[in-house]
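User: Here's a chain of 418 residues. Predict its fold as tokens.
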Amino acid sequence: MSRIVQVANFVTPSSGGLRTTLRHLASGYAEAGHDVIQVLPGPADQDVGTSSGRQILRRSPALPGTGYRVLRGGAQLTALLDRLEPDRIEVHDRTTLRGLGSWAAARGVPSLVVSHERTDRWLEQWVPHSLPLTSLADRYNAELAARFDVVLCTTAWAAAEFERLPTPHLVRVPLGVDLDGLHPQAADGVWRRHQLCGAEHLLILVSRLSREKRPLLALETVAELVRRGRSVRLLVAGSGPQQRMLQRRAHAWRFAGQPQRRQPPDPWPFAGRPPRPQLPVSFVGYVSERAQLARLLASADLLLAPGPVETFGLAALEALASGTSAIVNQASALPEVIGDSGGRCAEGRATAFADAVEQELAVAADLRRAGARTRAERFPWPATVAGFLNAHKLPLSAPTSTISANPVEQASGAQRSG
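Assistant: Prediction complete.
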């Protein structure tokens, strides 16, 4: 048995993909007989036992405007790691925690860093393009790679910026999906009809509502579909710093030929839900119950994934497992995740997304659902756990003969494009 210490930033009780990933990895490591300790940021110090090991929250400062807290990578954190005495350290952050690779090297502890984002694409989102963004990203990534024994990426898209360095200790392991808890059979026709409010097709956005996820593009896509005469309704499941802005925009949306409506002030000035928006969209907030999420995902016609910097997109993969195909941003890693049977990719414009929605809805529903589920079945969590343990050079307790080869590497380049 080895002690694996996972350290991560940007994890909250209502966060999505990274929190889900950490939970499944810890569970898989524990089932393989390893001791797992997670060190995460929180509002106060806390040390609790979980079903898969131990979770330590360290009081950490909030990152303004994001809803996240960030661990300081200084002496207090390294002193804690010294006391924990890990046999392996697994870092899920490339900002304040990048120095942990050097800490591990000095103590002879094998280290692994997971790249959950792509530096060059993030710089494009936030930094003026007049700067040498590729050179800046290459230097940043080279310094990161030099600190750790293994750099792990979940898609070819995410690995590309390390391959051009090159990075000899680069490993690619796709993430997984809960194929038992998420299934087309979770669909609920009565619930679906209630959510549709008389519309014909139910679209969903399951995402953190923040700038890099581009949730406004989902609203713009719905507006374009309505303009074309399509009977659709969008259900937005998630929370984040842009939630109130999106609610205001949906309520005050002006279509061509309509007078501009006065926007309500922020924050919403009365208790309860805001009035029904002019745009056919409902905001349900963060869905914490897995059974409710399974019902939502399985009852929809399509999921929209408009984010251009998604390195894997677990929400899209969870939709596929539920039999719901996805419309994804072609600039992200998601085209290689959905493959040629899990939906369509589109340029990051409302008209292109609307085209892809119409084309996907033209496919018979039973064929869409079967294709989505079949694609998701290539991403079981046991394969992900096996890949991570192999990257750590640690054993599995169970035979791995039934674990399939890397589905991302096998992905066809012929996914449907909108």
